[in-house]
Structure formats: structure tokens, C-alpha cells
Request: fold
Amino acid sequence: MKMIKRNSAFLVFAILGLLFVAWVYLGPQRTTFSKADNIQKINEVGLLGTVLLNCADSPDRMNCPSQVNSQSALSLMPKIQAWEDDLFKQLAPSSPQEEAKSTCSEYCSCSTWARYFETQKESWVAEDSDLLDLKKCPSFEALSKEKKELVLRLLESLYLQ
Amino acid sequence: MRGLFVLMTGLFLSPLLIQSFSSASLSPENETLRPMEELLYQRAVLEAASDTDLAHFDQELEDKSFDLFTSSSYHRLLAQRSMIESIEHQIMDSQDLRAQMELSMIKKDWKSYIKNSNFQASNKQLTSFSDQVTEEISQIQRDLSNHLLHLSGGSFKNIDGNGFSSGRWALTFDDGPHNSRTLAVLNNLKTYGFTATFFQLAKLAKRLPSVTQQLVNSGMEIANHSYSHPNMAKLGLSSLETQIYTSSDVIEGVSKRPLRFFRLPYGSGQTRSLIQNLLSNRNLIHVAWNVDSLDWKDRNSQSIFNRVKRQMARQKGGVILFHDIHAQSVKASQLLMQAVRSGEISGDLMSVGEALR
Reply:
């Protein structure tokens, strides 16, 4: 009887040990992936927001993807804000200052990052810099082919939200 | 001998445990494929069912004794809509772009999707789905009997400013109070002699009651912008009650004024009947907007002001949306007050309550 108890205890201990090892080795990888993924998504949604904002400000549709005009772009902006806020909640309380700084100008998402760090009550390295001036971002037509495709894909998702 | 059996059983089970652990949380790609297919299939089935129920509902409407709240097709439609929303949120929250595209296809043409789908629902899946539908319908019926039936006299009121007479502009600020920026806006309002409506978050009003009280003492209007700014289109009944009822209690407690107006965060959920009924039950009027400064996105106060001015020029009156938590909003709204006071922009800025008088 003693032997059974001892073996059972050993077995439970062994299983818990294996689970712990799996968690230690594999758990953190998943977390890291999720954070990187969120940073990338914030950049992308930031880009879409900038494209739509520039479109909303241009009465002639010159800066707009073909699916939207200035009025519809304006009406989509609250959805962008909600989407960004969702992503902020998923990323918080991380403080990826370096990652954001090195990628935001490429995606014209520095103003989005400024807002994220504002919600985290943190100062942001790019504050008051030219990076925050959305007027300096390229128009939709001037974006690279990949970026245009990305914007159109995100726009499709936004319509479904 | 029994010890050996236990040990062998354990050794047999442990790889399975590890495997299920790994597949559930560590390598989700293969495992999420099936649930996503199942979700898409359910979404298509719900679309088909809602088409049928809508046809029934239209037939029922012909009957003189028709009652919305006891109509079974209406209950089913509400349940379907709620489930459709839930499924769509799951799909949109996933990183699965293929599934998102397929969802788009289902919305356009569910018949083709079902015809071409390779997904075969198992009996277990069908039973589980059927149970979910039944439970959702029961939940809707419970909600209706608890919260909606007695509201047949009430009605949802929404203002977006489009009906305002010429030159009447309601100036509104969301998401505060903020310990410095709200007070900077208040200072500007006093300087230029305007009033405004502040749609506040209850959790912040509770934290900064003195800011809210200063606004009230200076003749500003306080309104409700929920408890914590969630996307209310996605919330269930009890969370909605917190966001509407509890927040109203908190803000009324801090401001010592009865609330008349509510604005949904992101303006999201305005068409949800549950939200509409909760608002009308509390005698709250929803206030949307027809001029959006987009000051949360743009950091340049001059370009925010230009955007507001351009939108105002297209309309005769309305509701202007700013946020009193950003530095650029303080400056941009000051530029607007300056322009209206100097006559550069015709009309007057006021609170929502004043604009409705």
C-alpha cells in the first residue's frame, strides 16, 4: 500500500514536472510572438488610419483607396480608433519604445504610438518630432505595392467589424 | 503490482497530456483550422436561418395582433444577430486573414459558400450548435421579459445635430476628465464665453471629482460616456448595465446633476436594440456627432481646426466632437472658439442642452 502511494506521488510529481518544463521552454516563446505580432498590428492599423485620415481631408478622392471617399473615410475613423484601442489593451503594459521608434516612420504610425504611450502614462521618444506630422506621410497612391495591398486587406477587415 | 500499473498508466497518459497541452496552447495553427471552419459554417447557417426568419417575421407583421416582444421569429432573429456578432468578432479577432475573406464571401452570398464548402459537421458539432442556439433564444426571451417588455412606452432618442437650426453648434468633449487638459479647455471656454458638453467616463470622474465639479460650477454640461470606454457593441447585458446604469449613478453622484445625455464609445452599438432600450429606460438621449475633429489621431492642432472648419462649412448646424484628454485638442478647440468669436466662422458654440432649446 505504501509502495502504491509512493509511486502515485512520484507519478503526479513527474507529470507536473513535465508540464512545468514544457511551460518554461515553450510558454515564453508564445508570449514573445504575441507581443511582436501586436506591435506589427498596431503599425498596420496606424498606417490604415493615416491613409483614411488623409483621404478624409482630401475632397477630390486623390488620396483615397478606390473603395472609399472622404465622407466614408471619415465615418470609418471611429472604427480605427476602436481597433487601435483593442490592440493597445492587448499590448499593455508593455513598453516597446525601441521597437515602436524603429518601425513607426515606415508605417506612418508614430501618432498611434504616441497615443499608446499616452495611455500608458509614458513619455514617447518621438514626441514633438516631425514623425508625428501626418501631412508628411505619403498619399495612398505614393505607397509601395506591398503597403497598398496591406491597406486594402485591412480595409476589407474594417468593413466587416 | 498495482504500483507498477499506476506507473505504466501515468507514463501512457503523460505524453497525451503534453500533446494536448502543446496542441491547445503552443502550436495553435493546426488546431485552430477546424474551429475556424466550423465558425464559418455556423455563420453561413445563421445567415440562412435569419433569411427564413425574416420572411416569417414579415408575414407576422401583416397580422393585426402582431406583438414585437412576443414574436418567436423576432426572438430568433435577435438570437441569430447576437450569435452572428459573436462569431464575427471571433473571426475578426483572429489573425486568420483567409477566414476573414471567407466571412466576407458568406456575407455576400451564403448559398454559394454552403454549396462549395467541404466542411462536414459531425453529429456532436451539430448538437452542440443546436444547444447554443436554443440557449441564446432562451437568453433573449429572458432579457426581453426582464428588461424590455415594460419599456413599450419608451423610445430610443438619438441626436446627431443634423436637425439643428442654422448656426447652432453643440461643442462636445469626450473621454475626460483629465487633470490638466480638461481645465485648460474650461479656461478657454470661459475666456471666449462659450459653454460645452463634457461626455465623461465614470471611472475617471470618480478619480477626479474636483475637475467635474469645476466644470459644473462654471455652467458646463456633464454627460455620460460609459464607465470605462469599451466597445459596447460587443458587450453582454450585465456589462451594458454597468456601462450605462452604474456609470450614470457615479457621474450623477460626482456632478450632483441629473444626466440627460449619453454617447456610446466610438458611437458603436447605436443600432443594438438592447442598448437602445437600456438608454431609454434611464431616460438618456444618445448624442452622436456630425463634425469629427479626429483629434485623437492628428497631433497638429492647426490641421485639426481646418478639418473642423471644412466640415462645419458643409452643414448649417450640428454637434462637434473633440476629446479633452489630448494637448492638440486643447489648442485646436481654442482655435475654433477664437474663429467663432471673431466671426471667421458664423454661428455660436454651446452645450447640447442649449442647442436643443
